[in-house]
Specification:
The protein is an alpha+beta fold. Helices cover 34% and strands 28% of the residues. The longest helix is centred in the N-terminal third of the chain and has 25 residues. It is elongated. The termini are far apart. The model has no long low-confidence stretch (mean pLDDT 86).
Length: 186
Amino acid sequence: MYWTRKKIIIAIIVLAAVVAGILIFYLWRSQTRDTSKELGPGSVNKTRVLTYQAPELTEAEKNSLALTNISRSFAERFGTASSQTVELGFSELKAVMTDSFYQWAGTTYQNRLASELKSDGAYAVLTTEALAVEVSELAADKAVVIVETTRVKKMPDSDPINYKQKLTLNFLNQGGEWKVDGAYWQ
């Protein structure tokens, strides 16, 4: 077999590439990971975990947070109604209302919403979205929360009306649970 200079150079390059590939593979494979948990003096831990422990909330902060969450969802549900579902709206809010307020909402407020959305069989809707919640007064047994809302009233024969309205909620603490005892649109 006749070897030319070009074939010899190509053979050397291929042989060197194969040897280098095998060498890299064995070096990479034989690397051991340091899994020891004991670190001697002067050692540096390569895996660094940062932990943060949030401070415990005070009772007032817990109550304020609970009132904010209840108020936001209550205001949206309490202020939203349609001409077809006015009668059904308050049963799901009963768990967060005092009995006396539930009675008032189921009669007086429900009738007011029904007359406001009366549309001779056509669909009318009033939607409410809570924008901001402020706990203005907080005591052990009662609280006052102000919810700023945006409301949209859509009647069948007119353009939607957008407006902002505040809702003041009075809460009573009954058996460790905050319940709405009054709601006043302003």
